[in-house]
Design a protein that fits this description.
heterodimer, A: about 260 residues, mainly alpha, 10 helices, B: about 260 residues, alpha/beta, 6-stranded mixed beta sheet, 3-stranded antiparallel beta sheet, 8 helices, globular
Chain lengths: ~260, ~260
Amino acid sequence: MILAGVVGIVVVGAIWELAVRLGNVREFILLPPSKIITELGDRPRLYLDASLVTGRHALVGVLAALAVALVVGAVLTTSRFLEQAAQPLLILILVAPWVAYFTPLVIWLGRGDPPVLFLVTLVSVPAFTFATVTGLRSSDPAARELLASVNASRAEVLWRLRLPSALPGILSTTRYVIGLSLAAAFYGEGGNLATTDGLGALGRRAASNSMARLLWASVFATVVLGVIGLGLVLLIERVLLRWHVSQRRRTSPAGATRPSRRWLP
Amino acid sequence: MSASIRLRGVNKFFGGLEALRLIDLEVEPGEVVTVLGPSGSGKTTLLRLIGGLDEPSSGLVNVDDASPHRARVAKRIGFVPQSPALFPWRTVAQNARLLLEVNRAATAATVRSPEDLLADVGLAEFATAYPHELSGGMQQRVALVRAMALGAPLLLMDEPFAALDEITREDMRHLLARLCESMSTTIVFVTHSIPEAVFLSDRVVVLSNRPGRIVAVETIGLPRPRRPDIEGDPAFFALTTRLRARLHEGADTRHPATRAIP
């Protein structure tokens, strides 16, 4: 999987490099990858520090959004009415332009980490909530009945059955939310919400001063953060979902992964 | 340890649909009773009423002279559903222990550990395997162990072998008979299979087409312990023939408009 990912990056990078060079594309429109890498190599400390800030904003925001969505999702699962009542709000959060949040956030939370973290959390909550509600509802009815036969409490059913059933969907959604959260962190930092320089602040400064290399290098560093985040999610999936069909490498016609261990009946 | 069951004048409606009509049945402690009937005759509904998973529309259902709900709360009922309903993220051993870990306050000291029971059904070496690594028959054995590990005085089994091939199904009923004969548990078993009903049961209750009514109760007088070769016995054959006739009589009680054209 890692080898395939590296091959993909190399091929896309080569096509990008060729397209920019052969097409004589101006630097500010599209910088070739070789120059982006050179820029990153020239000032590694600048990009590393900014990446740590943006990465922290995205990571904390995603974790907070996940925590909120698990609680909200568990509550919404108890009632179809509640679930339907929450839909307009979740859709509103999804479609509202992020810039609309800036002024209220600065007035409410001031500048610094809190408004950026709030923005990242806010925009990540709907996707996690949808995944949580769908996942919690998709547990095996026969398994629910089995737990009911021994009078399992709601909390036991949630912990032992519904949450594990929801895990594949939640982790799959995390892949998408990683990108969303980095975009929100970059945008929030670029919108001058933060006081510490993240990649978004570098990007904003570069755009204001027509510094193509700085702009593209900050965007590239954000992409690298996304790749690292995605890699982490894939690793977590490998560990937590080793039982899930998505993680099985070999399958026999009957669906067993270790045919040698099959023993009939 | 075993439980008694009493049903008196039980009716069950789902909206306008009548599922069960005037069911009267008593099951003695330690008895194995099979409910046999065509599809849609209300066999599973009857089992759910006994297990306290549903309420009758009218009539009385008692387990040990109390409501099934009380038996369920006290974990005095082991349930084996039609599908194994194993939790795919838990290993075989973890699945076998599942019901012991839930509602712990009511968990009784069990006679047999799940690990012992897994060894009994030939799954000791698969304790760390995941359900997807097992065949259908093996998964159903884990489901049996999971229910038996509770040490409950009443076992309810809802067509547990329905999805298995014929050979596996035979093996499973022989295994179940061996396990049950070593316990004194009361068992209510639901099935479509006549040989299964005869092999396992002390009595067989035959239901008619919907609405399910009891059209016959056959006592199976075959000696215990029952071993596979009993299925070649003329008495076994006679009982299956008689039950098949009862089942057809029950099926023929359906409304004329829905009767199959010969």
